[in-house]
Amino acid sequence: VLAELIEKFVSHLSESRMDCYFSTGNYKAMEIDVKKESLSSVQQLGVEMTVRYGKYLNLLKEDAENGLCFVLMNCEKFLKQQRRTVVSSLCCLQEHCAGYDWFASSIFLIMSGDRERTLTFLQQFSHLLVSAFLWIPRLHLSIHLPVTTVEYGIHPVYFCSAHHIEMLLKAELPLVCSAFHMSGFTPSQICLQWITQCFWNYMDWSEICHYIAICILLGPDYQIYMCISVFRHLQQDILKHTEA
Fold this sequence. Notes:
By secondary structure, this protein is an all-alpha fold. It has two domains: 1-140; 156-243, no CATH class. 63% of the residues lie in helices and 0% in strands. It has 14 helices and no strands. Helix 1 runs parallel beside helix 12 (205-218). It comes from Cephalopterus ornatus (Amazonian umbrellabird). Pfam families: BROMI_C. InterPro entries: BROMI_C, Rab-GAP_TBC_sf. Residues 1-243 form the BROMI C-terminal Rab TBC-like domain.
């Protein structure tokens, strides 16, 4: 039901010029001879974890690994068409991909391992503004960002979402904000980790699905409210750890 809901919603929005924030070229999924070896070691590890988790949730079948590799490699080729060439000494700008694609993996699980359905959804989703915040590799070295922003290697999730989370935290949860300040560790660091990993390893699968659906249906600002609500939920634990 969730897959159908976000699929229809995104398909409807991607047909409207007013809602298409990013223009993307036509890309036809290639029937690549999928070999896991052609993925980086980080991606290989991510694929193993995703497939293991998907089987644990009874969402994936035995041949799911090939389907996920197919999705990841096509996403890489699709996003590569919209990347800048940047000469930089920063390690994050020298790599061809921005780590493991947790968002694409989450959609693959939501679509029960249907690779064509997943790719179609991601291509339509890439037109929308919310894709910039939910799908981290979407704007890696992107032509949609100013050259100076790309050269700094800082993702919009950090200077938009994480910045607003810190501002809201100060107003909504001053004690939590002070606890972070005393620890010398910023809330934006942990939020960036949560968001990059789509809350994998932090929330249950149903909650991860709710997070993705809420942000798609209600807008990218709900990513900020979600993080604030998690900090509110953890407030007592955070204060207890600060005292200890």
